[in-house]
């Protein structure tokens, strides 16, 4: 399959995807193009009863900014499958954190599903094949009510109470020293 044919398939799938959305409200779309060639490998047979034992995969971390129903559609140059994990993907334990997976929705080179996602949860989307020789270029689109934000979910550090007490004590000490200096002058 040429790259032009891959993108034509992806464009046709996106049109079908948009038509099947059935939502009168605004839908946000996120598209990613990648390649699993030379990526880490895993034993697909261990988790999905497939013939591959050293199958390349590509993992994409993201989160969304709004709860809701999101549609996933992928087209590839190889017989592919897609898997969604909440909270991270561990190739050694592929059933842990599993949300959804699919293979062959329109053709052997396309996969898709609908999943309910929550804002503030880290997700990992995995593109892989069933056999050791199934890898290469792919494209996927995610559509839903909110934005798809690539990368790991940022963790905001919240200071402990002792940190606030030390800060307050330091400010108090600076204030006392300044006051003493003003009185002596």
TrEMBL record:
The keyword Transmembrane does not apply. It comes from the Bacteria. The keyword Manganese does not apply. Pfam families: PEP-CTERM. Keywords: Signal. Residues 157-180 form the Ice-binding protein C-terminal domain. Residues 1-26 form the signal peptide. InterPro entries: Ice-binding_C. NCBIfam families: PEP_CTERM. This is PEP-CTERM sorting domain-containing protein. It comes from Pseudoduganella buxea.
């Amino acid at each position: 399959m040429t790259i032009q044919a891959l993108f034509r398939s992806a464009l046709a799938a996106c049109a079908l995807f948009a038509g099947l959305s059935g939502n009168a409200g605004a839908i946000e779309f996120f598209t990613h193009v990648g390649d699993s060639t030379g990526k880490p490998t895993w034993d697909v047979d261990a988790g999905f009863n497939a013939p591959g034992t050293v199958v390349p995969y590509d993992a994409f971390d993201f989160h969304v900014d709004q709860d809701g129903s999101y549609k996933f559609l992928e087209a590839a140059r190889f017989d592919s499958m897609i898997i969604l994990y909440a909270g991270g993907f561990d190739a050694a334990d592929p059933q842990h954190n599993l949300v959804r997976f699919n293979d062959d929705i329109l053709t052997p080179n396309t996969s898709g599903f609908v999943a309910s996602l929550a804002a503030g949860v880290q997700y990992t989307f995995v593109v892989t094949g069933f056999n050791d020789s199934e890898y290469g270029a792919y494209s996927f689109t995610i559509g839903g009510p909110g934005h798809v934000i690539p990368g790991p979910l940022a963790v905001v550090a919240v200071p402990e109470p002792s940190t606030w007490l030390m800060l307050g004590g330091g400010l108090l000490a600076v204030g006392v020293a300044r006051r003493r200096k003003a009185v002596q002058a």
